[in-house]
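Input.
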Amino acid sequence: MISSSSSSSCGLCFVKINPTIFPQIPPQPPFFNVSTSPISNLQSSNHLPIQPTRRNLLKISTLTIIRLTPIAPFLSCESTWAETQELLELERYTDSNDGFTLLKPASWIKVEKAGATVLFEDPSKGGNNIGVVVTPVRLTSLGEFGDPQFVSNKLIQAEKRKESTKDVEIISSSERRGEKGDVQVYEFEYKLDSTRGGVKRVFSAAFVASKKLYLLNIVHSDNPQQPLGDRTRLILEQVVHSFDVAL
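Output.
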């Protein structure tokens, strides 16, 4: 199941899978509240330092190219310099308390929201956001619950049951291995047309580690008047692919 909440003051929409569809461990609280997490445990570092010159672009190190592998194949000579620079503006965020890591757009700011372990907002449009929820479960891996197709069907069924949903379309579902190799990570993408915020594109990634469910959700406007652009899509896909257990 999926649940959705919004704030009328900023148009914030944070979409999350309801953890109750996974075997729970009562009576622990369903979510780790980011507002109670010590600031010292939330680390944001490792900016990708690309200077705005063509010479420096040619000098990108092998390490940087490897870190940006999901994006690099899409860069072509037809891309403008501004587009290329935007693609590389990602930074590493690691929560050492709950043990996860991901890349995020450097300009997106961290905000507090009940039920979210961490939430980042696009400062130019609050409805675009990246959120992570961590909650205890009885599972040791997502495979015990079902394959990516099974879980994506659950997502779509839950969305269709909402009164606010006008239409929902699954775009893709897949599975990959985390950096440690023993963690199953499921990734999903779907398009949601809702009376709350119009058409949105939702990217999700989930994994189970140490009997905790880690869920990443990215929500971005995708209205016909301003559809999701290729550059933005590449950035959001890079964020999804980077979600993993903190080593």
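Helices lie at 54-58, 62-67, 81-87, 148-160, 230-242.
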